[in-house]
Structure formats: structure tokens, C-alpha cells
Amino acid sequence: MLKATLRSFFAHKGRLFLSALAVILSVAFVAGSLIFSDTVTRTFDRLFASTSADVTVTAKEDIDEGIPSGLVPTVPAELAEQISSMEGVAGTHLDVGVENITVVDAENEPVGPTTGAPTIATNWYVTDRSPVELTDGREPSGPGEALLDADTADNKNLEIGDTLTVLARPGSFKVEIVGIATFTTTNPGAALVFLDTATAQQELLGDPGKATGIAVDAAPGVSDEQLKKNLAAELGGAYELQTADEQAESAAAELGGFLDVIKYVMLGFAGIAVLVGIFLIVNTFSMLIAQRTRELGLMRALGADRRQVRRSVMTEALLLGLVGSTLGLATGIGLAAGLIELMGLLGMNLKATEMVIGWGTPVASYAVGVGVTFLAAYLPARRAARVSPMAALADIEVMGLGRPLTVRAIVGSIVGAAGAAALIGCALATDSAGAGSLLGLGVALTLIATVIAGPLLVRPVIRVLGGAFPAVFGSVGRMSQRNALRNPRRTGATAAALMVGLALVGGLSVASASMTKSFDEQIDRSLGADFVVQNSNFMPFPTEVTDAAKSADGAGLVVRQRFVPIALTMPDGERVESTASAYESRLDEVAKVEYTAGDTQAALAADSLGMDHEFAAEHGVKAGDRLSVEFPGKRKATLTVGALTDLPGSGTFGPQGGIFLGFETADAYVPDGQDSAVYINAGSGVDADELRKDLEKALDPYPQVQVRDQADYKELIRSQISVMLYLVYALLGLAIIIAVLGVVNTLALSVVERTREIGLLRAIGLARRQLSWMIRLESVVISVFGALLGIALGLVWGVAIQQVLALEGMTAFAIPWGTMVAVVLGSIVVGLAAALLPALRAARMNVLAAIAHE
Fold first, then answer.
1. Distance between CA 225 and CA 640 in Å, rounded?
2. Ranges for the MacB-like periplasmic core domain (predicted)?
3. For residue 33, pLDDT beyond 70
4. CA distance 42 to 830
């Protein structure tokens, strides 16, 4: 049996290779994501471990910033002298560094990265742990001088003697590049500007008596933990103390969010490849077993029992899994190397020579590859074992005649009913958490039900889809339709591979279209200003930007916005950390706010605030209540709830709770905040287009901010949602690739199965071109069938997803009909492409040899 199994496997290696491709793709994405994330993690662990001080002292932040406010936590610079005299301290250094800056060259072009990495300005001092070293020029020695990192200098063609303008919170200032510093470790992709310490304190923090942290070196023989204990005993709990290991762990946790995005995206691709590949492998083994029924029957007649037959098929699956996993692991290594090179182009200089392949990567790769093939081959193997010797010798199974689909109908109906109930429950749910859980359950069950019941839909749907074939293509069209109807199980499984990807696209396309429409309606409903001046990444900006906007020739009313981190103690005792929006008094003239209680004037009054009425109701808050509020720096106040708003999705379109307050209150408790937006209306007699030109001219020195109107805001939202759609389309592309392999495999095996039939058709006059069209039409009708199932299922999912979004305030519903039509047309192209090789092979058959085929 083992010899027969090996001979059978290698006899069909060409056909099995298409199935192996699905395994290879899924394993490659799993291996590539693990290798890439392990490599980046190891690289940055070394960076953080080698550059962190023994102990770092920073300001304690009691409120997490949900949205950047521009606040820079600081410690007194004189604390360094106090710490230097403590037990176990060998020395101290002031750290002065900020990220919320923009640096431009002499042509007013930003020199920072465009990939999301920060531009950092910090003070220059040299230790054995410095991440950079001076490689050209000299150190900065006073105001107007700076070092620049070598990578940024190379990317922006900057050199010693060039002038840069730094736009920081206290104001903008110019510096001359006097030296170039080169990274001694991995460059994380940031742009670094180094100033001398005194200049950094004055220009970056606006206070020569402040620093952002203090690096403390341990004396010989003193461990980091012991030094931390000594400092804690002296300083109490007033400051945040972190050892080098703790700093590295904290930095790695922040980096983890970035890595998780890449990892989960790649694992998503792997999941789609696995799911779609299962259909392909099931179909391949089912057809191979059907074609080998006579062979299997002979084995049974010669004494092989059911267990041996089943074991033979599973052995072939094992071999396929091992080969696919090995090739997939090798492909995954190449994929990880490609990602490392891509990160290099984006500014993160990783080294492929330092690639990390942990023991978990090959284990996961072989577990996925072998597991997928075993799972997919199990049912065909059981089916092969149940074939009796006489039935096999009679060749009953070859033509796919078959067993009734009663069991499928019953199981599919039960699972489908459960899935429909879950989706209905999702639509009726009143909380987003419960709705999300029901949505996930409903999606999974309806997908399974559609796969199970798919063959039941083959005959009625394909009769309709191919109904015009006989009239248009004559006898060729009639035969292609009947070929697709010949084996509903096979046709259903082949179409299911395409259905999975298209269902995902359909559901998320409806969700994205609904989100876009909801945001558009929200912008129309809430934004009343002619223009808004904002940072490109919504970061706060210096006051001089606001002053420049106010000074624009056509500017009339100007209302500022600022974000303020706060912590509310609610009547129910819960502490809620959020970010409040602070506005100037004439908010009503630039925004459209609806209230259930109070008004704008009451909300923006001194020591007052407003919030969303649904958020207030959740916590038992009413208009007029007084709440204990904590601001950064442990400043505390008791504020009156002056108004409750009625803005759908206040927790989705903005910070949790939709909390807002007046500038007078914000200045009283957070005096060093930065503006995050400026709302501007045109002055009397000034046209909006004229105002835009005036604003863009006035803000030309500040490339970090943009002037936006309602249309610009809508386009910005669409571009952000498009990022999700691009991922969906990429998943669709992968699903289509594997689905095409499935159609190719099905048609190729079908051609082999029908060799004698094709020979007879050719003998009675069927031309090669007619034969090719017969196979192409069969492929197209199968592809369109899968596309229609996917679109129908995706629309159901999209409706359910929109109901979940409605709980978050996104109540609009939209169906992207253009996308749906494009998917159907695309499925026709997929069908034609998948049929090329099988049609070519069939057309080249020798007629006499085909008729004589056994």
C-alpha cells in the first residue's frame, strides 16, 4: 500500500501542485509575519537595551492622552543636581526632547519622514549609550546651531552650513547645521535634530528651568533596581522612575502596536489563503479519488481494507502538506526579507542578515500546512474508504453520479437558521459589544451554511445563469451548462473558493460606503465654518500658526479649538479618562450643535462643561450636576454640567463622551496647551475662494497645517476609509488567485475525467474552437455563480455590520452598486482566465487516443 501510495502521489504531482500552491501561500504569510515581527522585535530590543539609562526620572502622567494635546510633561532641571548627590548615583544628564515639532529647509519643505515616524528635537550629550555618534562637523555650542542625523541629511540632500527652521511649541527658530550624527544602532525611521542643552530648554520647552527627564547613571557595583529604590526613597512618589529594562519594555510595548498591525494583516492573508485553500484541496482529492475508483476497487478486491485505503489517501495529504509547508516556509523567509527591504525604503534600516527565525516559526508553518491538508483530505479519504470493491469496479463514482443532497439540505438549513438568528439578534441589539459578538457568530455560521448548502443552489441558479447559452452559443452553450450541472458538489466547492473572498469584499464595501455616508452627513450637520486650519496628522500646532491665520486678509470670525486630557469622577463612582475639546465663546457661529439641555453659552462658561446626553445618561449625569475633574499636573476642579448635546456618534466622531468646555476653563487649569484647530469664517464681503487664497498665503511658512472646507474634510475621511478598502481588495486579490487555481484544477481534472467523451465529441465533428469555448463557458458560469453567492452573502453581512455601526452613531446605509457590478464583470474575466490552460489542453488532444482512453 505504501508503494502504491507513493506511486500515485508522484503520478499526480502536476495536479497536486496547484493544491500545494494554496498551502504554500498560507504558510508563507504565517512564516513571513512571524519572522518579520521577531526580527523587528529583536532589533529594537537591542536598541532600547543599549541606549536606555540605568534609571530615568520623568514626570508622572496620571491621565492618558486619547488625542494628542501638545502638552509636554516636564521636571525641574534643578532636580538633576539633587539626584547627583544621592546614594548610588555616578552622574546625571538632563534630557530635553520633544516630538511635536516640524522642521523645514530653506525652501520651506519638511525634512522629517513622511511614513508616520516622528521628527524629534533633543539636546546633545555623549555617553557610551548614545544611539548616534558625531561623524562630520562639530557639536552645537549655542543658539542657532544644530546637528542633523545622517539618514535625514542624505534623504533631503542637506549638508553642513544649510539652514533649518524648527517650528516648536514656544515658537519657530532658525538653526544652522554644524554637524552630522550617524546612528550606531538601528535607525527607527525618525528624523533627529540635536541642540545644545540650554538652547533646547529655551526653544523647545520655553523654560530654561525645565527638562523632559533626567538620565541617572549607577555607581559601580550598584544595580539598576537598587538605584531605583534609592531614588524612590529620596523622591517619594512624585516622579516616574524606570530602570533600563523597564524603559526597554515600555518602548517595546509602544512599538508592539505597530508590529501587531503588520502581523495581523499578514495573518489575515494567511487565514484567507487557508480557508480558500481548503476548498481547493477538498475538490482536488475528491476528483482524484473519483477518477481512481477502479484502481481503489482493485486494491479492495486484492485485500486492502477500508482503513488501508483511507490511510493511503491521508498519506498523500501528509506528503502534500510536508512539501507545501517546506516550500511555504522558504517563501515566507523571502517574504520577510522583502518586508525588511521595504522598511528600509520607508526609513527603518533593518538588516536582512540579522533575520530572526525562532523555533516557533517552522513549528507554526508545518502545523498550518500539514493541518490544512489533513483537514481538507479527511472527508475525501472517508469517502474513498466507503466505496465497495464491486461499486468501484463498476465505475459508478467516476461520473459523479450521486448521492442525494438531503443531509446537506438539513445541516445547511439548521446552521443557516442559527446564523440568521445571530444576525437578526445583532440588528436588534442595543449595545455595540453584544452586537459585535453576534455579528461574528452570524458571519461564521452563515458562511458555513452557504458552503454546505452551495451544491443545492447549483442546479437552479446555473440553469438561470446559463439559460441563454443554448440560444447564443448553440450546442456548445448547452453542453457547457450541462457540464457545470453534472456534479453539483464539485461545482459548489469550486465556486465556494471565490465566494469567500467576494463575500468579504461585499460586506466590508457596504460597511465602508455606509461609514463614508455617515461621516458626510455628520460633517454637513456639525461643521458650519467656511474653513478649518488643522495639522495634517491632527497634531497640535504653535500659537504663531493661529496668529498667522487670524492675520489673513479675508479672515473674519476666528474660533480656536484645543484638546485637554481630563479624568471625570462620575456620580456612579466610575473614573472616566477622556479628552475634552476646548472652544472659544462664539462656537455657535462656526459649528451646528444640537442640545437636549442647556446651550453653548452654559457649556463654555467658566468652570462648566458640556457632554453627550447618551454618555451622561449611562453614568447618571444630569444638567446642573457638579463633577470632580482632574487635569494634567494633578490640577483638580469641580465643574458644572452646563449642557447636554445630541450629536450622533459622539464617541465615534470624537473623544469618549463628547465632552467640551470653554477656553477660560482650559486656560485656568491647563495654561500651556496648544491649539489643535482654528475655525474661520470669511469677513464681510469676502468670497470663500478669496479667503482660502489669503489663508494659504498667510500659512505658507507652516507646511504642517492645511486649510480645509467641508469637501476637503469629506475627502480626508474617504481617504482614511480607503486604507481599509485597500486591505480588503488585497485580500480579494489573494482569494481570487487561489480561486483561479481551484477553477483551473477543477477544469483540468474534469478534462482528464472526460477524455473519452471529448474524443467522441471531436470525432462527430466538434471543432477545437468549439471545444475551447465549451470549457470557457463552463468556467465562466461557475465563476459567476460563486460571485453571485459571495455578493448576496456580503450584502447580508453588510446590512448587519451597518446595524453595529448605527449603535456608534453611523446611521446612514449605502450600497456601492458600482463595486458590486465590477465584481460580477470581474468574475467573468476570472472565469475566462482560469479556462485558458484546460481549454488549450483539451483542444490539443489526439482524437483517437482520447477515444481509446481508459
1. 45
2. 17-232, 491-697
3. yes
4. 42
- Helix (H, G, I), strand (E, B), or coil: what is residue 803? helix
How many residues does the structure list for the chain? 854
Residues 6+ apart with CB under 8 A from 361: 31, 34, 35, 38, 329, 332
Assess contact for 757 and 775: CB atoms under 8 A: no
- Residue 112 corresponds to which cell in the numbers above? 522629517
Comparing C-alpha atoms, which of 526, 810, 539 is closest to residue 679? Answer: 526
**In angstroms, how far is CA 827 from the centroid of its own chain?**
26
DSSP-assigned states of every residue in 508-558 = HHHHHHHHHHHHHHHHHHHB-SSEEEEETTS--B-HHHHHHHHTSTTEEEE
Q: What is the pLDDT of residues 529-578, one digit of tens each?
A: 889 998 876 788 888 899 999 999 888 899 999 999 999 999 888 898 88
Q: How many CB atoms lie within 10 A of CB 147?
A: 27
pLDDT value, residue 3: 74
- For residue 86, give Cα distances in angstroms to 163, 216, 343, 385, 586: 42, 11, 44, 80, 53
pLDDT of 782-812, one tens digit each?
Answer: 888 988 998 999 999 999 988 888 887 788 8
A 10 A CB-CB count for 648 gives: 20
Tens-place pLDDT, residues 640-695: 999 999 875 444 445 677 899 999 999 999 888 889 999 999 888 888 889 999 99
Instruction: Give backbone dihedrals phi and psi of 168, rounded to 5 degrees, phi first.
Output: -115, 175
Where do the H-state alpha helices sit in 387-487? 389-393, 406-428, 432-465, 469-473, 475-486
Q: How far apart are the first and last CA of the chain?
A: 23
Q: Give which of 234, 274, 233 is closest to 82, Cα–Cα.
A: 234
One-letter amino acid of 267: L
